[in-house]
Amino acid sequence: MIQEKIEKLVNDALAKTSFKEVGLSSCIEASKDQSHGDYTTSVAFKVAGKVDKKPIEIAQEIGGKIKRDKDISKIETVGGFINFFLSEEALQKEIYEILEEKEAYGSGKEGKGKTVVIDYSSPNIAKSFGVGHLRSTIIGQAIYNIYKFRGWNVVGDNHLGDWGTQFGKLIYQIKEKKLKGLNSEQKKEMLNSLTIKDLEDLYIEFHEEVKDNPEMQEKGREWFKKLESKDDEANEIWQKALELSKDEFDRIYQILDVKIDNSIGESSYIDLAREITKEMQDKNIAVESDNALIVDFSQDLPPIIIKKSDGTTTYLARDLAKIRDRIERWNPEMLIYEVGVDQSLYFKQLFKIVEMLNWKKERQFVHLAHGLIRWQNKKFSTRRGETINLEDILNEAIDKSFELISNDEIDLQEKKEIAKMVGIGAVKYNDLSQHHQKDIIFDWQKALALKGNSGPYLQYTYARCQSVLRKEKVKTKDIDLSKMNDAEKSISRELVKFEKTVKDSADNFSPNIICNFLFTLAQKYNLFYNDNRILGDNKRLILTLATAQILKNGLTLLGIKAPEKM
Questions:
Q1: Which domains are delineated in the chain?
Q2: pTM score > 0.70 for this model?
């Protein structure tokens, strides 16, 4: 890509300067302001930290050594920055590549031969799919799409929360509230009649009742221990909860258009978790404390329990088992965990143990920590019964989007399909357009706006491009983009930044970088559309076609569909 070519020119120039021994290399960035060129490098500031020279003098020396190239119309140095302006020939060549490569434009090969495992979504069974799991699901899927686009072998792994003391509590509550006094046939019938709503209500009831009956906590622990010991009755109740939950998750994933490669629960790792716990004890990584086993990190981190005093496994032990399984199964170069920021300490402890076990080696472990989704400035809590059902949110988004579509040429069935694309896209984009570490307060007006940085605005811009292209055929064989006016050149210069944008998004684990780019491109195209006659001008039709392609490519990476009409 053109950015790599510029980077090579700068590095070749660096090697010819008087400060080549500092061993630094250039990093090319897309210019935020087009008056400063298409690309820029601040390498002179990095060199200035190593030698006794001012950045502007260093930039001028590097600039004087850069070999001139037909793809660059101008190179300028401003206050220590070196700015590069692309030639019309370079812009034309890149736009031709967009039209040739189509949905593949912007992809890369830097991940060829490498594997990344992405842990995302990971809802807990026996609960409705709450809005609290939306961020992990949407961000994780976008990261999956982006890394696959950049040539990686990507494995999506949905680590279902289907084990732990909470299920002992649920089993106890079901026994007491639903199965007490029933014969075996009646118990079976009752279990088959349970719904996700029933399970969630029972869990909430347990935590209300335990306030006045603290002995219930011990009952819950006892039933979880029975479950780990493979007690038939405990297992039967748990299996029913698991079955109901998987059906619920599959329905939500279908609405969200999310497909995860593997869905393996914690329960699959009990035996391996015990093996790893014993290994850690044998290596003195885990030590006894009050009849439990803990990992003591000295002063670096707080200690963490690996095995409880009653002998049951912990989430940590099961997570370590999952890591070993991933390493043995896929041998990944990178493991990414898309999990909330409130788990930051836990992941520091987990990754430290991975190092202590000598599993890390050259692998990269990343906790992609997202902020919370808040509703009226409150955090959701299933325990208190304050969670918002995600399916209700999605259905409301679709209903509200239906009202936005005013095109009389669209029949009722097509309008419903478009409303789904727009509604689900709005919910996704509302999340992805903000940095993952930020908390989000859900705002319908912002999410569904047809103006401003929103999913519907980008979808509307794509549909506008398609409307133009349906009216006149584009001639793509003999592209001539010479003598462009400022609006045409502005769009062209934006389009060619897409590949660099996708790469930056992958390197920073930040889908919002793609969102910001798409929003800027859509703004430029709509300004161009309003100020220029497009029909009858093949150059402008080509720019419209290229804009539509890039918008679609970007939206696809975000997991958002691009409607042909709107």
A1: 2-86 (3.30.1360.70), 120-374 (3.40.50.620), 390-557 (1.10.730.10)
A2: yes
